[in-house]
């Protein structure tokens, strides 16, 4: 998908264009509107839209809305918004539910050819009869119903004469096939439930494995790209295309799904986190959803580049979270203004600085991108520094502020700590320092050196701000438990939610930031990249989400 890197899907497309199998390629991104998109979907989006772009083809956005119970208009709207935000525009927008009539007619073709039958076995019986990998399946007693009887029953299923679960339509393939998917799969089920698009028109709904190949063929999709869980379904996919006499013959191609270490990537589980209140919605910045990443402050470019860098292969090993973070740092490095923010403030008084004086200091907005210009920062007698930039009794190699030590205040002066003020509990509440006017930043002072540089904001002018710091939502153990015992997955998953995934602190920012708007991004000196939160920020008090820390060398 990288413009000039090759991959096996691209090679197939190149060959299909060269041999004349296709003149134009058409791909599709086919989400089921049963949740918000996550970063895994971004991979599918980048592959499908990216390949079509590269070969002057087209991409459809198709809602695979064949399961009315789980689907919702809210999801449809969010999916469209997320695809566009990622930077893609579909040529055609489709809903699988618009093909219900055609799908029904294609099922009738199967029945007429003796290739589908109405079965009265229960769901459990069908599962039992299916057999196992080592045991052939058993034929249903209803398998030999006549074409006439099947046509009549199927029509009555459609007309609503039967209860949910009392009958299904099954493809008649091979109950002894070594591929379990080919053992007479169910293709229609009865479900008396309203659909968000078709309302009460239908009470039978097609199963995914039947619907999907037909949707692709109806839309003349040339390359139907999906993840490797569907590899075993490919013979069935081709069988439906063939036996339903579809004019177009799309080719299913599988690639390995994207997994990120320590990250839950399943709409079902993400929905549970939302429904049970572990997060404040699908767009909570801790969620690996596109909307969560957006609110946290990730950029479309960072997500696209990350996904491309994971490559297209058949395998699906998990990549590190750090890889995603790398790409957002890269993307923001030259564009995010630098600024100073104090997250856990400690008052510092510069005792030899004149009481009523305020001076404006010059600072680069982004030293890596001088075109961004300069900003001005007020400086006066009282400032805030970070609590952990002071220690009364420091260990060796602590180069920040402690009694008797001198440090540089970023963009300002050297200060030296002379006195520590404590409350009645012995808690440090104020530091008294003196500054040396000779040492002003940019003045070329070379008289002596200090080892530490700390950030600060002017106490009188600072704007109060809230900072939200994130840790992984799910602890490592979750994935371990899942790997160790797949069947207990449901029980254990929520038990591994990290209780410390969100830390909220109240601090201060530079006064020149009074006009920040939601989604504005900054690099706070030493703290990392932050994004103005779109839900909680107000004009009086901005709220900043930490996108990612800097690779910090300041830690003790
Ligand atoms: P989930 O299991 O999270 O619910 P899904 O596959 O059921 O995902 P769909 O709405 O069917 O969700 O997905 C739309 C497309 O996105 C499919 O073609 C699917 O293969 C692809 N997709 C989903 N998850 C990933 C992933 N982790 N990596 C790559 N592609 C993915
Ligand atoms: Mg799916
Ligand atoms: Mg799913």
Automatic annotation (TrEMBL):
Keywords: Aminoacyl-tRNA synthetase, ATP-binding, Cytoplasm, Ligase, Nucleotide-binding, Protein biosynthesis. GO terms for cellular component: cytosol. InterPro entries: aa-tRNA-synth_I_CS, Gln-tRNA-synth, Gln/Glu-tRNA_Ligase, Gln_tRNA_ligase_bac, Glu/Gln-tRNA-synth, Glu/Gln-tRNA-synth_Ib_cat-dom, Glu/Gln-tRNA-synth_Ib_codon-bd, Glu_tRNA_lig_a-bdl. It is found in: Cytoplasm. L-glutamine binds at residues 64, 208. Gene3D superfamilies: Glutamyl-trna Synthetase, Domain 2, Glutamyl-tRNA Synthetase, Domain 3, HUPs, Ribosomal Protein L25, Chain P. Residues 336-436 form the Glutamyl/glutaminyl-tRNA synthetase class Ib anti-codon binding domain. This is Glutamine--tRNA ligase. It comes from Cytobacillus depressus. The lineage of its organism: Bacteria, Bacillati, Bacillota, Bacilli, Bacillales. The gene is glnS.
